[in-house]
Amino acid sequence: MTCTSRVFNHSKKLRNAPNLLRQEHSTLVRWFSNKVHPLSSKGDDILKIPGGRYLNCNSQSTASFSHTCRVINTDTITSLGLFKGNVSMTTMKMGIPCSLLSKSFPGPHLRRGFSSDSGLPAHQKIGMPSLSPTMTEGNIARWLKKEGDKISPGEVLCEVETVGDKATVEMECMEEGFLAKIIQGDGAKEIKVGEVIAITVEEEEDIEKFKDYKPSPSGATAQSKGSSESAPPKKIEVKEEPTSSPAPKSPKASVAPSTEGRIFASPLAKKLAEEHNVPLSSIKGTGPDGHIVKADIEDYLASRGKESLPTAPKVTDTAGLDYTDLPLSQIRKVTASRLLLSKQTIPHYYLTVDTCVDKLVDLRSQLNSIQEASGGKRISINDLVIKAAALALRKVPQCNSSWTNDYIRQYHNVNINVAVQTDNGLFVPVIKDADKKGLSKISEEVKHLAQKAKENSLKPEDYEGGTFTVSNLGGPFGIKQFCAIINPPQSGILAVGSAEKRVVPGTGPDEFEFASFMSVTLSCDHRVIDGAIGAEWLKAFKSYIENPESMLL
After folding, report:
1. Cβ pair 456, 424 in contact under 8 A
2. Which of 136-145, 318-327, 529-538 comes out lowest in average pLDDT?
3. What DSSP string runs through 79-138?
4. What is the C-alpha separation between 308 and 252, in angstroms, rounded?
5. How far apart are CA 114 and CA 477, in angstroms?
6. What stretch of H or E contains 6?
7. Is 109 a catalytic residue?
8. What DSSP line would sit under 197-229, residue for residue?
9. Quick one: CA torsion of 523, 527, 533, 537, rounded to 10 degrees?
10. Cα distances (angstroms) measured from residue 381 to each of 357, 376, 476
11. How confident is the model at residue 375 (pLDDT cuts 50, 70, 90)?
């Protein structure tokens, strides 16, 4: 009778075999196993959900469904529970792993789905967002909301400092609820994208339940740990430590076993032998299959009266030397990596020219008189340089380009980045369409962006999209001439030095005059800008500087 009952039960399961064959084969094996008995409100079907969908137990994703089910493992039950509505499968640890396999089932909430940790109400894990294509880590500048505050869509939760782009961006709330727990507080550094930074809940009374909440390790970490525990990798170690002996072994003249003249020795033994000029052919190995190991070299050196180990160089502090190690900021790290990449991958060359700026200084004085009368901002020499560079790029568009492996991209917009040094590091905000803007507009934007850079509040749109860069160390620092490093992916950067008075020949044979000259150096990417093209651009730039009225036409 028992045998007949089993045949009848398995015949019922075979009705759903075609559906199961379309799923994983492992599911079919577990289904017919006597050790695992999934139960549901529909009888003996394997976690069958209305609509012909099945719950396979391999995933850690979050799914939404309205069917109530219970899974029981009679041998290895580690948790038992009912789940209904929005359920996170990441916290359900069962004797069999759980996943949801259905092409027609609604997609999982991979990033911001509500989840139910063991013993906690429904909550939402807010991860570090990816605020730019190059962002892999971020810092929390400050939280604008505190724990327990009510939040609504569109409200700013915190300010995030992007590590890769040197910007501070506001992170807005996406759903309504309450901020229950802040995981990463003000000033938290190097937070990976996707790492949990806060917890939100729907109901205010649930806030207190997250007072001592600590996030569990990420799924990837947990999975890797689980796999390492279940199947630890096999390690093949060559034991190099010799058995203790009362006296060191004497050097043996017999040749180590070799195949076609090859001597087998461990890498450490070879390195030690090279450092002490020990011929491997004079040593007999005691390792596996006659391999020469570190201990054999040490014994040989000991028998010759030498030190068994090479002495490592000692790092000693210079007497009386006082110093402080300054931590690297994220801006410094990004600047260093980009400049290193530029010098290593871009073939730089430099062109320098002296420009007379007497007329430029006179024009600036006239324009500033007009600006002061109208209540506008004063125009600087650097504003005039930016305008001249933009017009020269429009005249010689080959310099307004960037290199790719397949083609040279020539830009139709002239966007000038301006190097700004601050206490926080070097920033390069951008003046977009500088060739089409007036001097007063350029002056306003430069001053506004420089102030934002000093406050460390630049947004990505404030510095992205530049096609050329101007760096001025002459006016503020009095540097006569320097060579700047190209800001990739751009192909050129103009280094502006200070103006100085020089004696020049006058109109008569014995006459002399004084004139102010400013040195500028153009750094070019030789892959994009040939020498003649760079010279042509400098010629156009010099023409605008020495005849500044042409910039106003």
Report:
1. yes
2. 318-327
3. ----EEEEEEGGG---SS----B-TTSPPP-TTT-EE--TT--SEEEEEPP--STT-SEE
4. 17
5. 55
6. helix 2-14
7. no
8. EEEEESSGGGGGGGTT--PPPPHHHHHHHHHHH
9. -40
10. 9, 16, 11
11. confident
pLDDT tens, position by position, 53-78: 444 434 433 333 333 333 333 333 33
Catalytic residue among 186, 362, 433, 530: 530
Element (H, E) at 297: helix 294-303
Question: One-letter amino acid identity for 111?
Answer: R
**CA 175 remoteness from chain centre:** 27
Structure tokens at 541: 């730039």
Establish whether the linkage from the previous residue to 489 is cis, with ω within 30° of 0. Answer: yes
Amino acid identity of residue 130, one-letter, is S
Nearest residue to 352 (alpha-carbon basis) of 495, 536, 487: 495
Q: State the amino acid at position 335 in one-letter form.
A: T
Q: Is the pLDDT of residue 442 over 50?
A: yes
Ranges 12-16, 223-227, 329-333, 374-378, most confident: 374-378
What 3-state class would DSSP assign to 499?
strand
* Alpha carbon 368 to chain centroid, angstroms: 44
Angle at 425 between CA 422 and CA 430, to 5 degrees: 75
pTM comes to 0.54
- Is 412 annotated in the active site? no
At 464, list the tokens. Answer: 């992205």
Structure tokens given for 378: 């004063």
